Each structure stands twice: as C-alpha cells, then as structure tokens.
Amino acid sequence: MDFLTLPERTSGSRTYGLTSVADFGTPMGELRNILADYSHIIDIAKIGIGSAYVTPNLKKKVDLYKEYGIKPYCGGTLFEKCYYQNKIPEYLSYLCELGIEWVEVSNGTLDIPLDQRLELIYFLKNNFNVIAEVGSKDTEKEMPISEWRAEIKQLLEAGCQYVITEGRDSGTSGIYEKCGTVKSDLIQELVRDLDPNKIIFEAPSAKHQMYFIREFGPNVNLGNVKLSDVLMLEAQRCGLRSETFYMEAQECKLP
To answer: What is the pTM of this model?
Structure first.
C-alpha cells in the first residue's frame, strides 16, 4: 500500500523524531484502545503536572505504556514539589517502585538555581535517564536568549538525554508569547551550535506543531502532544495536511 512519496520518518526505537505525549488522566480503558492503534507513533509519555501522585492504578498505567515500548515519566511539577518539600530521596524510591526509568528535572514553577539542577543530574544519571526542562511557566518572566542556550548546553553536557523547551500545555509561555505566537528568533538561536535532535519542543497545538515541522522537517522532537492528536501529528509529519502538503523527502532538515 506504500505508493506515495512521503518524507522519511524515523521508526522503531527512535532517538529523534520523537512524539512525547502528555497524559493528564486518561482512563485505563481508553488508554488501552489508544495504544492498541497508535503506540507505534508514540515514544514518550509524560504523566502530566503532578497528577501521577493522585492517579488511580498508576503502576498498571506505567506497565501498560512499557508493554507498548513507550517510556513513561512523571511531569516536572511533581519533581519540583518533592524538591520544595525536601523529599527527593522518597521521590526516587517511588519511581523505582513504579518501574519508571526516566526522570525530569525542571524549574518551571520553582526558581531552582542551575548549579543545583546540574548537581542533581550528575547524581541521577547513574540510575535514571534524565530529561531536563528549560524555561518558566510564568508568562511575565523573560529569559535572555543567551541564557536559554547556555542552560541547554550545560544540561546536555551534564548527562541529560534530552532537554525540553517550556511551552506549557496551553502554548502561552516559555518559547511562546502570551498570545501563543512562537518566539521564532529564540528558536533559531537555540539550535545554533546545539544538536536539535536532543531538544524536545513543547508543541501542544496543531499550529505549533506545524511551525516546527516546517522549520526542522518531519523528524523534529515534539512534546506535550495530546493523546487524541497523535495520528493527526503523524499525518502532518508525513506531508498529509494542507500546511505540510508540499514537504518532500529531500526537505528533511535533521540528520
């Protein structure tokens, strides 16, 4: 049935071209149905905000994701809550009991100094795959572009597998203006001299996703994707939506 010429997509156990979904409480029955059809186009699952702590049957949900080859982890807000209450050791034990192998180090709500985050990453990478996040959820807080780039570089050098650029599930902070417009100058600077395959751009809406696909090709890493949108996103990556219609295989911009 493969008769169209489409952009080449990474597949299998991807290291880039990732789709990272945000699970904000999807019921187990619904999740089973979604994964039965779409697990091959989902790579990472963030159990959003701090919801993992109050999610019923969390271990079963984690096991279900892993059964389908998807990497589950808890949202950075839960990490920050544990940091704020000096409960990081308890948090790590909690992750181990759940069988979660990925951990996010973020500072979207708390202003955790970079040196403390780096120290945590050096410690955590011995037992976990670490994802860090850069940027604030506060729409009034502006980080200089140079600070964005310096943080991402240092976080990757410290041992992070990926760095997420903050955008929230609303697409109104971090790499976005309050109105939802992408800060395109910031994005272009972020990938200068940095490996874009190591950056996961939070892109919660179709218009945000299409911006990054047009800029970097079908194999850009995208996060905070709604579970209900994964098939539409894959269609966009494959040039099967009007906005990406003319994107051909040779236009892929990532190695």
So the answer is: 0.94
